[in-house]
Amino acid sequence: MSDARPDATTEPPATPPPGARTTPADAPETAPPGTPREASVDVIQRELTAFARRARAAAARVHPEIPLVSYTLLAHIEERRGCRATDLAAHYLLDKSTVSRQLAGLEKLGLVERRPAPEDHRVQVLHPTEAGLAVLATAQANRLAAYQERLRDWSGEDLARFADYLLRYNAAGPEDLPASP
Amino acid sequence: MSDARPDATTEPPATPPPGARTTPADAPETAPPGTPREASVDVIQRELTAFARRARAAAARVHPEIPLVSYTLLAHIEERRGCRATDLAAHYLLDKSTVSRQLAGLEKLGLVERRPAPEDHRVQVLHPTEAGLAVLATAQANRLAAYQERLRDWSGEDLARFADYLLRYNAAGPEDLPASP
DNA sequence: AAAGAACCGTTGTACTATACAACCAAGATT
DNA sequence: AATCTTGGTTGTATAGTACAACGGTTCTTT
Q: Which comes out higher in pLDDT, residue A54 or B141?
């Protein structure tokens, strides 16, 4: 309660927007049994958006150590031991230049290492350094812990299903992601 | 267009991860029935993160009309007819200055209107203009349509449950959101 | 009532993330 | 060889954001 925040902590509109909605969805706080598809989709849209929106704001707080979004890239590099910059760009829908600069930053911080590929002399194979792995490990641990905490009260079944839904949602590919600003 | 993203799903796993863990976008795994809590949480964490990351990238494509992230703010203003700038800042964990500038942009585009409050002369009550409402309606429609498309194959039950999970997840409040970098 | 604290919003400054375009270097095609 | 293609870097520009300092307001306290 640091500040006066009368309206809110949660995204779902306190008051169902009267009219002006394109859908009859009144954004129920908890989806009742007979929720029509449109309503559910609307809620999903809004909630995912809310998540994405807040995620950015919260990011800095979680690992201020890694000053960059490039934490993600580092994670990816680690995940598949050794990858090219282009892979990262493709995977995250980023421009080559962006990735290039991010990597430059990571390298300057001593978190990644680039090695020329023996075969193709154009590519550089990226590897996390020791420091990179360490940073990554703690960051990951922190984040996972935070999620564990947040999801503490959930039943195992719900967790599994939620995870499943998310996988399914994301599996559709990044192309047409209609998400939040 | 020589995009940097020919495909995000086809990138060759330069070195396939030895473990069971793959990247969501590459290998949509399905959470097996007996998934332990930790695994589920891990998946949830990763998938939500992935979503957040991609969301930003996709944002511009969806509504290029509204050049700003401020679409969100506009939506919020509309949602609760009339609100103050500080509310927005608090709600989205943004700095006052950021909100101020975003609003300036929206105003310059003729999408919002600020009126001094009769009572308190410090505050300005924000209202969407006609144009603002229109823009918002179409943007919302587009986005919803995109989601509908993406979720086309889902059963009504799954949609309802997914929506429910998201609500539940987000309801915990923005404070400790441990999300993606 | 005067002084001070608290609040709302703007402006100055700075930095990150990002895109697009132009470019260079190394392979691949013809 | 000449030309396309691909991987990466650099130049330039633009959002979005934060932090700090500030000028008005309103509320509290003396």
A: B141
